[in-house]
Design brief:
- 58% of the residues lie in helices and 0% in strands.
- By secondary structure, it is mostly helical.
- Among the domains are: 244 residues, Cytochrome Bc1 Complex, Chain D, domain 2 (Orthogonal Bundle); 52 residues, no CATH class.
- Helix 2 packs antiparallel against helix 9 and helix 15 crosses helix 16.
- The chain is elongated.
- The structure holds heme C (6 copies).
- The site of one heme C has 25 residues, from helix 17, helix 18, helix 19 and helix 21.
- The site of one heme C has 21 residues, from helix 13, helix 14 and helix 18.
Length: 453
């Protein structure tokens, strides 16, 4: 192969040698081909990235059409949304659609029992058990005589919950069939797929690029050598070009070159030192070991337990609260009772001492921060300040918690004024002298006394 290329190149250059500025021409064509290659490389990779993102978008679409109404269970999106809200608020602490928690997985309940039975059971399961309904009694025993709360819901409300359950169950089934391998909790990690591909493709292309570069240099060397043998056929200018040598030793002795290298190096050192200094007193990334190996990834991620279920204060008070052992017992009275980690919860309750969780986030006493203000009024997501808690086995501090961090967000974030009559007058006043939407800073979010006692 290489021999063949060399042979044909020999022919090529022999024919080109007749043209006058031939050396210049070969060099230019070498550069041109490198540039074209690099250019098409970027076009290709960006096109690849684009096609992947569109793929993800199209697989993301829920298969609403497929979930047509069956056996009187509605597939109306409005009903499903209403049902979802009811389910999240009332049932999720004990039920998941596709997984057994404290109670059974609710998927398929519409096949196991008819709607009237379901309604009666949700309204008062204890009455059903007491009446001797065989199915209810067996279920109650299977679940270690755990009492399900009674719910004073209307028939429509219960129907909407079941519509949501059915929609979720069918969606999960559809998702499981897609070849991409969507994980069991239903969230799409396919988004990370393309980036993995992309790195592989980029690495591959870089290797190819290097190989081509090496081949080009070999060709260049070969041609120069070949031309040197025929120096006599060339004119003055071409001969000079062939004799040119790249002298690295000379370059390293050049003061301008040394200056530039020293300057770039200096900039990196200064930046590293400054970055280091700015980190003093900042605990970003702090992730202490906890007395019980409690995992948010498992509870909040996989089992989708709502943050509010444990952090009860987060929507109503300054502090989010760390749950007491009693909240754990709502579930761990039944779940994993033999696990040594769970035994620690029982020990804490028996000895009547709280579990000594290690605090992760710590603002200094001079600063005032209020969760209800940010989560309930300001409509801020936990994730924007705490990061992807649902992915964390051990909680770590995500944000720097510096004053600059608070201030930046107050400068950038619009106030959530919709449906809040309290802000109506303010919005009107504000819009008289500014076209920008109302931001936290316009309410005094930058005043020292708002954050400092
Ligand atoms: C405190 C925990 C808890 C809550 C909250 C709860 N359930 Fe249950 N549920 C259970 C348990 C436990 C069972 C198993 C039967 C038993 O032990 O009484 C069950 C059984 C059921 C069943 C029968 C399942 C089957 O496979 O036959 C249905 C239907 C049901 N629950 C619906 C609901 C709905 C709807 C809600 C929310 C409005 C809800 N549950 C809230 C604990 C709970
Ligand atoms: C089943 C109960 C439970 C649920 C649900 C839960 N948490 Fe927690 N959370 C805890 C416990 C217990 C701790 C203390 C131990 C630890 O830090 O891991 C904690 C600690 C934290 C901390 C660190 C507190 C500190 O010490 O500074 C943050 C932040 C947090 N949770 C956020 C969340 C968010 C956001 C969610 C919802 C996505 C959530 N939690 C859901 C029980 C829960
Ligand atoms: C709403 C129900 C629920 C609540 C509340 C809850 N858990 Fe869990 N927990 C679970 C489920 C479900 C599992 C997974 C069990 C399994 O893997 O089979 C689990 C697993 C665990 C495990 C792992 C056990 C092992 O050995 O694998 C620990 C530790 C744990 N929970 C601690 C806690 C603590 C501490 C609290 C209170 C802050 C708590 N849980 C509150 C449902 C709950
Ligand atoms: C605007 C930023 C912000 C948002 C949004 C936010 N937090 Fe926090 N969170 C903080 C700060 C700051 C602290 C440290 C407070 C302190 O040390 O006084 C904290 C502390 C906590 C703690 C430790 C206990 C406490 O109350 O000090 C928990 C638990 C917690 N957050 C949970 C949550 C949950 C759950 C949500 C979402 C419902 C949430 N946070 C939303 C900024 C935020
Ligand atoms: C993710 C963005 C974000 C971050 C980070 C943030 N805030 Fe806020 N903050 C808001 C929003 C939005 C509001 C407006 C809430 C409302 O509608 O009243 C607010 C309001 C406030 C207010 C009330 C201001 C007023 O005029 O009434 C105080 C005090 C406050 N924040 C303190 C803090 C402190 C202290 C920190 C840092 C530890 C912080 N915030 C970090 C978004 C943020
Ligand atoms: C949005 C909330 C917010 C506002 C507004 C704010 N601060 Fe702060 N400030 C903080 C937080 C949070 C800290 C703690 C940060 C840390 O520990 O790095 C802090 C820290 C400080 C500190 C450093 C204290 C120390 O021990 O290092 C000083 C000084 C300070 N603030 C002064 C001011 C002054 C003066 C103003 C008004 C011009 C102001 N702050 C406005 C949130 C705020």
């Amino acid at each position: 192969m290489a021999y063949y290329i060399c042979g044909s190149l020999k022919d090529l250059s022999a024919s080109m040698i007749k043209s006058k500025n031939f050396m210049f021409a070969t060099q230019r064509s070498a550069y041109l081909s490198i540039i074209t290659f690099v250019f098409s490389f970027f076009i290709l990779t960006s096109a690849w990235a684009q096609s992947d993102t569109t793929d993800v978008e199209s697989t993301d679409q829920p298969t609403t059409e497929a979930a047509t109404s069956q056996g009187g269970i509605s597939s109306d999106p409005a009903v499903i949304t209403a049902g979802e809200a009811l389910f999240q608020g009332n049932c999720r602490a004990c039920h998941a659609v596709n997984q057994k928690l404290v109670g059974p997985a609710l998927a398929g309940i519409y096949d196991r029992q008819d709607m009237d039975w379901i309604k009666a059971f949700v309204k008062n399961s204890q009455a059903m058990i007491a009446s001797g309904d065989e199915y209810s009694v067996a279920l109650y025993e299977e679940y270690n005589n755990t009492m399900m709360t009674s719910f004073n819901f209307s028939d429509e409300e219960i129907e909407s919950i079941i519509a949501y359950v059915k929609f979720e169950a069918e969606n999960a089934a559809a998702a499981a069939e897609t070849p991409e391998g969507v994980p069991e909790d239903g969230t799409t990690t396919t988004a990370t797929g393309p980036s993995k591909y992309l790195t592989a493709v980029i690495v591959g292309l870089v290797v190819v690029l290097l190989l081509i570069l090496i081949v080009l240099f070999l060709i260049l060397g070969f041609l120069t050598k070949f031309l040197k043998e025929r120096k006599d056929d060339l004119d003055e200018a071409d001969r000079e070009m062939i004799d040119q040598k790249f002298d690295f030793g000379k370059l390293t002795r050049n003061p301008a070159f040394i200056g530039i290298v020293a300057f770039i190096f200096g900039i990196f050192v200064v930046k590293a030192v400054l970055d280091g200094l700015y980190q003093v007193g900042i605990q970003q990334g702090y992730a202490p070991k906890q007395p019980i190996a409690f995992s948010h990834k498992l509870h909040a991620g996989q089992y989708e337990i709502d943050c509010n279920y444990c952090h009860t204060g987060v929507r109503k008070s300054k502090s989010a609260n760390i749950p007491s052992a009693n909240i754990c017992m709502n579930c761990h009275g039944q779940i994993k009772t033999e696990s040594p980690e769970i035994q620690k919860i029982y020990a804490a309750i028996e000895e009547n001492t709280p579990i000594e969780w290690v605090r992760v986030h710590n603002l200094p006493d001079l600063a005032y921060f209020n969760h209800a203000q940010h989560v309930a009024v300001g409509n801020q997501e936990c994730e924007s300040c705490h990061g992807e808690i649902k992915e964390m086995e051990v909680v770590e501090q995500f944000a720097p918690l510096t004053m600059g961090w608070c201030i930046n967000c107050h400068k950038e974030t619009n106030i959530n004024t919709k449906g809040n009559a309290y802000y109506d007058n303010l919005v009107e006043l504000h819009s008289q002298h500014s076209k920008e939407p109302l931001k936290v800073e316009d309410l005094g979010g930058l005043e020292c006394a708002k954050c400092h006692y």
